[in-house]
Amino acid sequence: MSAADVKKNAQDRMTKSLETLRGDLAKVRTGRAHTGILDHVTVDYYGSPTAISQVANLTLVDARTIGVQPFEKKMAGAIEKAIRDADLGLNPAAQGDMIRVPTPPLTEERRKEMVKLAKGEAEDAKVAVRNIRRDANEGLKKLVKDKAISEDDERRGTDEIQKLTDKFIADIDKMVSEKEKEILTV
C-alpha cells in the first residue's frame, strides 16, 4: 500500500459519505411534493415487505400531490395503509384505481424543524468525513513506521488529505444551504 492508495481510499469513502448525505437530504420534506418522500415506505406484498416503488408507479400529479398507481388493483388498500402508517404526516385518498397523496403545506415551525434536521444530517456527514481523514492519516503514519514512505511523503500526504477534507466539507455546506433554501421557500 502506498500514500496514493491511502489518498484514493479516503477520497472514495468521502464521496460515498457525500452520496449518503444526498440521499438523506432527499428524504427531508420540502413544501413541494416529490416521490422521494415515499422511498422508504414498504408494503406487505404476499407476505414480504417490499418497497412501494416495486409494487406501484409513483408520479407527480401536481406540485403538491403524488400519484400512486398500483400495478395490481388489489394492492391499493395495502399501499394506502402503508403510506398512512409510515408516520409521514400524509393522508392518501383512493380515487378509482389511483391513490392520490396530497402533501400538506409546511407551517413555519415545521420548516424550521426540517432545516434543523437537514443541518443534523450535514453534521453527521462532516463527522464521517473527519473520521475518514483520521483513518487516512493513521494509515500514512503506519506506512512511515513500516518504512514504506518517508516522513516528507507523509507530510505531503497529510496536506493532500486535509485539502480533500476541506473540499468535501465545503460540498456538504453547499448541499445543506441549497436544501435550506428549498425548505424555506414558500
Automatic annotation (TrEMBL):
Keywords: Cytoplasm, Protein biosynthesis. GO terms for biological process: cytoplasmic translational termination. CDD domains: RRF. GO terms for molecular function: ribosomal large subunit binding. It is found in: Cytoplasm. Its main location: cytoplasm. InterPro entries: Ribosome_recyc_fac, Ribosome_recyc_fac_dom, RRF_sf. Responsible for the release of ribosomes from messenger RNA at the termination of protein biosynthesis. May increase the efficiency of translation by recycling ribosomes from one round of translation to another. Belongs to the RRF family. HAMAP family: RRF (MF_00040). PANTHER family: MITOCHONDRIAL RIBOSOME RECYCLING FACTOR PSEUDO 1, RIBOSOME RECYCLING FACTOR. This is Ribosome-recycling factor.
